[in-house]
Automatic annotation (TrEMBL):
InterPro entries xrefs: Ubiq_cyt_c_chap (IPR021150), Ubiqinol_cyt_c_chaperone_CPB3 (IPR007129), Ubq_cyt-c_CBP3-rel (IPR014569)
Lineage: superkingdom: Bacteria
Name of this chain's protein: Cytochrome b pre-mRNA-processing protein 3
Family per record: Belongs to the UPF0174 family. Belongs to the CBP3 family.
Pfam family name, one: Ubiq_cyt_C_chap
Domain annotation Ubiquinol-cytochrome c chaperone: ranges: 36-173
Amino acid sequence: MFKRLFGAKRQANREITDALYGEIVAAARQPHFYSHWNVPDTPLGRFEMLSLHMFLLQHRLHGTEGMAQEVAQVLIDEFFLDVDHSLRELGISDVGVPKRMKRLAKMYYGRTAAYADALERRDDEALVAALGRNIRPDEEWAESRRLAAYVKTAVAGLAAQPAEAICAGKLQFPRAGEEGQ
């Protein structure tokens, strides 16, 4: 039992999870989103971008089996642990965290359903609308078209990355603001 919990394989899996989650966070925190595309640099704006990038990887791994499916589940668990930790750092009480987590989980799954539906139907306008509605619901957001182009670039780029490489901890997202976005 101790070998399974504390063995080399467990450490290797933790390193892979940390590497992948680190890439997701780094992609979500690209300064271009906040400085040029007017994504709010607030806890909620950062949650939206982290959710979007988590969705992109989950979308890539959807339908895979074996190790890739396990990696997808571990990463979604890591995402929600990180959100929980962030809420606590923001000073949300132990009593308030579960209620907020339930609300944020509902938001995450609602957004991912809208993004997946738009991508599946190849409906650019629906993707633009979903991004705008979720990231800047308070105003008409012209940059939603740029973010939608980024999402499509990311989907294509992730599709080109072998699941085996992702499961080994290698993941690359596009840089925001590059040609075509």
